[in-house]
């Protein structure tokens, strides 16, 4: 059986992606990161639940405290407030963690090489997003080349990003067909008991459900 | 003044490289990693000394425990003995940490972007080495492209690897011209009080000093 490292944050996209990987016949090796982000407890609980529901062969949790040492993002520096979504924002939102996806993909590649996995599934999407440079297809292509050249010659790992050109509504539609339990996912960047409903991540999640005309099973309203 | 993130392990190559960066007029932001390797105490002490001697503006130490979680290398798994150097080895030595350099470079890039640095100096060398895939020039070129595409559009970070096609003897010659204090560097992969003298890293260090016909200021003989 083919084995895939699935980056599983506990959000909508990565959860739908893990269900997609299983649907494609891969055995799931769930890789979850905490990096001092505001919502790490919620995300971990969601990711664990999803991994269990998917019969993942392993749930690897990696704590990356260094993003706090590096700083420069409201996601990891509690002194900076999380930007609310803006239609016409100039530049990147302050939730951008410098070069984050490259860090996560490098770790995923190390794990995939050590475990003999065939693929890495990562739920990045270029469109309908906040302009993060490390979500673009060109970035993913460059990283694939880095993997090909930087791993052992007998290692062959394919970076799978089937959602990179899909909208969040497309992803949601796919997930509903696959029976993804969205009540067990968490998307909000803020740290309230309920999702805030106003950060970029909530904005795009709500929009996806609205676009499909179906209710979101989680509750909003901040803390 | 231009600023450079310098990966400083405390070994010969990275120390010589940091001296090279300073000689080129860069302000030094020293980045040191510990990842559960056998010799982390020695390496940290050497790196701190060198950073101090170079008037580094910052010494950032990042602990990466996850390489132990991932496993697969004698450098981070104490149950596996460190391979001795072999002239005709088949495949990679067991000191290979899967995709390690990509992990280190991803972190260096995050730090460089967060601090507004202009360059990253990393002391990889392709030749005279143990066949690690993530030390090859093609890997470095692919990673540069990943940086260009994965960082903010107004960020410009150049990956500097002046030693990539040099032999260790060339590097040592360069370092002696720059006055590098090699008595404060540590190269051995094993964990004795003195360098073992038989691992790949000791082998190449000793060979470099022998090639130049000068004495190595550190002492050998294992524990």
UniProtKB/TrEMBL annotation, chains A, B:
Gene3D superfamilies in UniProt: HUPs
Alphabetically ordered keywords of this record: ATP-binding, Ligase, Metal-binding, Nucleotide-binding, Zinc
CDD domains to which the protein is assigned, alphabetical: QueC-like
Pathway: Purine metabolism; 7-cyano-7-deazaguanine biosynthesis
InterPro entries: Ni-dep_hyd_lsu_Ni_BS, QueC, Rossmann-like_a/b/a_fold
E.C. number(s) listed in UniProt: 6.3.4.20
Single GO MF annotation: ferredoxin hydrogenase activity
Catalysis: reaction(s): 7-carboxy-7-carbaguanine + NH4(+) + 2 ATP = 7-cyano-7-carbaguanine + 2 AMP + 2 diphosphate + 2 H(+)
UniProt xrefs under PROSITE patterns: NI_HGENASE_L_1 (PS00507)
Protein family (similarity comment): Belongs to the QueC family.
Name recorded for this polypeptide: 7-cyano-7-deazaguanine synthase
The organism of origin for this protein: hydrocarbon metagenome
């Amino acid at each position: 059986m083919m084995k895939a490292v699935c980056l599983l944050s506990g959000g909508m996209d990565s959860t739908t992606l893990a269900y997609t990987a299983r649907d494609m016949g891969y055995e799931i090796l769930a890789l979850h990161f905490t990096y001092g982000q505001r919502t790490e407890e919620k995300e971990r609980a969601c990711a664990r639940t999803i991994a269990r529901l998917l019969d993942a062969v392993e749930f690897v949790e990696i704590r990356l405290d260094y993003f706090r040492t590096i700083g420069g993002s409201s996601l990891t520096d509690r002194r900076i407030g999380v930007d609310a979504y803006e239609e016409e924002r100039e530049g990147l939102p302050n939730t951008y963690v410098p070069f984050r996806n490259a860090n996560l993909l490098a770790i995923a590649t190390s794990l995939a090489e050590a475990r003999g996995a065939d693929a890495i599934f990562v739920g990045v999407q270029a469109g309908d997003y906040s302009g993060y440079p490390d979500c673009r297809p060109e970035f993913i292509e460059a990283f694939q080349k880095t993997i090909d050249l930087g791993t052992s010659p007998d290692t062959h790992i394919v970076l799978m990003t089937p959602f990179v050109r899909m909208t969040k509504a497309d992803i949601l539609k796919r997930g509903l067909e696959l029976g993804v339990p969205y009540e067990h996912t968490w998307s909000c960047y803020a740290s309230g008991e309920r999702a805030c409903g106003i950060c970029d991540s909530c904005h795009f999640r709500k929009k996806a459900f609205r676009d499909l005309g179906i209710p979101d099973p989680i509750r909003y309203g901040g803390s």
